[in-house]
Amino acid sequence: MIASSQPKALSRGRTRRFVAGLLFNAFLLVVLCLVMAPFVWMISASFLPDGGATKIPPVFIPLHPTLDQYHRLFAGMNFGRSFLNSFIVASAVTVSSLLVNSLAAFAFAKYRFTGRKRLFGWLLSLMVIPGQVTMFPVFLLLNRLHLINNYWGLIIPGMASVFGIFLFRQFMEDIPDELIEAARLDGCGDFGIFARIVLPLCTPILVTIALFTFLGTWNDFMWPLILMSNNDMYTLPVTLANLIGEHQADTELMMAGAVLTTLPVMVLFLFLQKYYIRGIMAGGVKG
Amino acid sequence: MKKTGKSMSRLFSQRVPYLFLSPALALLFIFFVLPVGAAFLMSFTDFDLYTLGDFGSLRWVGFNNYLALFQNALFWQALQNTAYFVLLAVPLSIAASLGMALALDAKAVRLKPLFRLGFFAPVVTTLVAVAVVWRYLYHPSYGLFNWLLSFVGIAPVDWLGNPVWAMPALVLLAVWKNFGYNMMIFLAGLQGVSQDLRDAARIDGAGPWQEFLNITIPQLAPTTTFVALTTVIGYCQFFAEPYVMTNGGPLNQTMSVVLLMYREGFRFWKMGYAAALAFVLFALILGISLSFMQVRREKAAI
Predict the structure, then answer these.
(1) Which of A202, A231, B130, B161 is 20 to 30 A from B50 (CA-CA)?
(2) Which domain holds residue A82?
């Protein structure tokens, strides 16, 4: 009697747990749909003709997709140029900052020199200062140097980053000193050790920091907004934000602009997400 | 001869690290350290549009900028708005991050990588682009929000045009955009919660809720402190959301400290005044950071 009732109770518990699991997954799926809805609507609206996105109920899948809005952006709104500007600035900041910050991190990680610890502590303490504090003097300095409306005005101040140095140093400290000593015995110079031994070993963190820097520069809004007053020098976020003033009623056009601005970084993330997540964790560890 | 070579290389390597550090240090000095000092001095001057043309007209005004700031109703409004945004958005963001991390940590969940990717996607978007999109989602007549709410019988609301709802609307965008980031940190933190402790609690008869309150929450405390501090600091500087969506309105209800600073400094070119505003923001962030550290130290002492 007892033996026969037990499997029944067990299977009832299992059924209940199965149903609860199913409901929980269904709930998460609903949340996922809500989180994704702005993207779906944005992409869909960008392929609609004028007035197509202002209907109720909203269109989530365009029946007759058109590239009109994209065509207008490139033909008359300078989007091609803005795209190029964003790409040039983000790439230049990424490449130059990787070099500058990794070199500094190498010095902190692998050399013993006077004032090393104190200097690093000072650098870390700079991180509590919000960037807005420096904007006015840096603007005036760049103005003096005639670097307003110039790529260099966006690139040079973004090159050195305390956080970049911090992340590189953390990674480099785990590189065994024996490797460096062996290279030195083989006649490798200091810069050779850095370029040929240390940097290749840093590839994972290099990709992570490159990704963070590229996305951060691409997405940055306030500094290019301040520095660029000529439409030909606008980056994508600035062009998009300015477009809304004149074309507020052109919902579909604005959505095409939003797609062009944000899709490149989302695709980049999709391919390199492993490295991005690693960066979050490396940043989180310091807390 | 070998000995000489070695001492040579050691002498050399005393100079090398400074050489390697010099580009980064020079850049940080010129574009960060020096400007911080210059901005501080600027905040005690009447630097304005005329000064831009002729530096000779610059005058020292002592604490006048700070006094003018504290007598300006718009400054207090911006400060109040920023505090409101932070106090509303930070708890909601952390609750969403922790909630979704706990949900995705559950054994019953299928397709975890898909959910993780989907919830994380808003984090890597361009803020200006999604703020533009959300501006239309909040549209009173054809926005997605009012359409969804119409199913539960709620009449259309002009979210961004209503002084009461504009700020909560910006908060919702911020939570949507950011919760995925801290969700990832919490997910990693949850891996660190000791399974032994959980098992022990279960043997002692603790239910899931008690286990959550007495094991998970205390074990996640360092993670939560870190997440809370970084989120507070980030939200204190919110700018693009009101710039794109409301331009500080309606009735200045979404005017943030940084938006005010941008306007005074780069629209009206009252840079001395705006620099004073920047230092008030700095003092605020510094105060918050120090008090978080104090709390953590006290907790560690116990």
Answers:
(1) A231
(2) 69-285
